[in-house]
Amino acid sequence: xxxxxxxxxxxxxxxEAPINLASETPFTVNExxxxxxxxxxxxxxxxxxxxxxKEEFQLALFKNSNKQNLFADRIFDLFDIKHNGxxxxxxxxxxxxxxxxxxxxxxxxxFLFRLYDLRQTxxxxxxxxxxxVTALLCENNMSLxxxxxxxxxxxxxxEADTKRDGKxxxxxxKEFVKKNPSIIKIMTLSDLKELTLAFPxxxxxxxxxxxxxxxxx
Amino acid sequence: xxNKGKVLMQKYEFGKMLGQGNFAKVYYAKNIKTSQSVAIxxxxxxxxxxxxxxxxxxxxxxxxxxxxxxxxxxxxxxxxSKNKIYYVMEYANGGELFNKVAKGKLREDLARKYFQQLISxxxxxxxxxxxxxxxxxxxxxxxxxxxxxxxxxxxxxxGESKHxxxxxxxxxxxxxxxxxxxxxRKGYDGAKADIWSCGVILFxxxxxxxxFHDSNLIGMYKKISKADYKFxxxxxxxxxxxxxxxxxxxxxxxxSTAKIMTNSWFKKGFKLKSSHKTAEKDLPSTDTxxxxxxxANTAAFETKNHKDQLTKLNAFDIISLSSxxxxxxxxxxxxxxKEVRFTSMHSASAITSKLEDFAEHLKFKVKKEVGGLLKIExxxxxxxxxxxxxxxxxxxxxxxYLVELRKSSGDTLEYRKMLEQDxxxxxxxxxxxxxx
Lengths: 217, 436
Prior knowledge:
The complex is a heterodimer.
Chain A: H1 18-23, H2 29-43, E1 52-53, H3 54-62, H4 70-79, E2 86-87, H5 89-97, H6 105-116, E3 123-125, H7 126-139, H8 146-160, E4 167-169, H9 170-179, H10 195-198, H11 202-205
Chain B: E1 7-8, E2 12-20, E3 24-31, E4 37-44, H1 45-50, H2 54-66, E5 75-80, E6 84-90, H3 97-102, H4 108-127, E7 140-142, E8 148-150, H5 180-183, H6 190-207, H7 217-225, H8 237-246, H9 257-260, H10 264-267, H11 272-275, H12 284-288, E9 311-312, H13 315-319, E10 340-344, H14 348-361, E11 364-369, E12 373-378, E13 388-397, E14 400-409, H15 412-427, E15 433-434
Parallel strand pairs in B: 9-13
Antiparallel strand pairs in B: 1-2, 2-3, 3-4, 4-6, 5-6, 7-8, 10-14, 10-15, 11-12, 12-13, 13-14
């Protein structure tokens, strides 16, 4: 009892044992097993190799494998912790765990900061902010004049960039989020609370020992 | 195995056993963290495997999570270990409805109340393509408020009473609640078969005994096939009229749930509000995971002191509207978004009056709240109670607004249908673009 089969037949490279992933995330072992079911589906939608490729990620998000989107690209890059161009199962679970309703807020704030720091300079520059606003407007065919876009960016920079150096650093970001909590709402996915109902296949092949599951809430 | 006192997954503490069947035992349990009472159905995998019902088990879980309704016992979560499957369900501590009947027949208005709740649940499930196929006394429970809770919807394949011959049997070995076409093992319409069972249940509530009974099974089958039963003298003419349309052996001409719900006997005192008091535990995702603007956090914006001032979006609020940042798509096949948003170059007051016009046209009530927030409520009943929509206007830039519509309560399917058929066309002339 209590022994987990780490090398179950049929697992693709990049697989990690649910018990290990559960121990370092807010997920239970069953929830990680349910996520594996989702992962299998996402990672085999175009190429069945146990890895989520960019096209498969786009297909899942937009129901269209060719749709390019600046923000989806950023999320993909952040999920791809090893920077090898694909999302492995462990990366998928660890990254999604930040979106769990019970995940620490500080993690959510930090994740979003890295996401918006397009060029990974350690700061969100005014130009990056403008680039992102423009991308969003473009994505939705919203035509605003450049002056108006500049005005929106300037106004936000005025509030966020308290050191007045044209960029938002980590510290300023935390302060700004504190005053504007609405901007980290996208970092919480309520879907993650209903995983066992949404992906119930795990019930037949769960590796959890009876009544002894070492799981936190 | 004795489970009492044991803790499941460090989350639920087992109490006494509530019931037992061929595949499963049901226990009372308590969530250690929240103290919430639950019922946990413990299924032995080996037994499920033996009868080859693995695939059904998965489908059933998905089905059960589909049918959230105030009169249906809710499945909260599923857990599993190597040998067992655990269904964590809502606990109805009022016991079985039929314990009440065992003490004698019910008053007509009380029987009607339960029947209304039963039909409301059955109609809701049918609208989602889910059939019970085994409605019977054991499946009708009451919670502490006396609200009816139908159990085992979508669980039919694992139902304790389904024998390998595919025939339905109740635990006492009588098919008393089963429709004639099911007994005859013809391909049957699940909806019409459920309605028949509802009719038998109503009969029992009012009479205190079964409409079809005989000393042997063959005799009972014969009576059911011919709908051979008699009304007791105390049944009112209205109820006998309704029951004869339900207990019609021909499923094709048997009354539908929609028709039952317009029946004058049925409609009497049909208050959805009361049965929906504890209602609408809609998926939290639908209601709480909004990008911005829920009542609770409007204060986070600059509107605190100015009742009519709109919430202004900062650059990051605008960015977070991107569909690329909404990961909920990973979890659904359809890609339907939870909120509907559009931009407009019309003034906020023009947008407001347009929303009011359209709401009035659809006979919805409108209430203005602070910061460009409108509460739009449908007064007539929906399948899950009153439909409430919030519409909020945000300022993106001077003379450029974003309007967000989101459902606060009511049925999701009904809401989506209304959006497509009524809302989108009605607002077309003030909309600049609909957001993706």
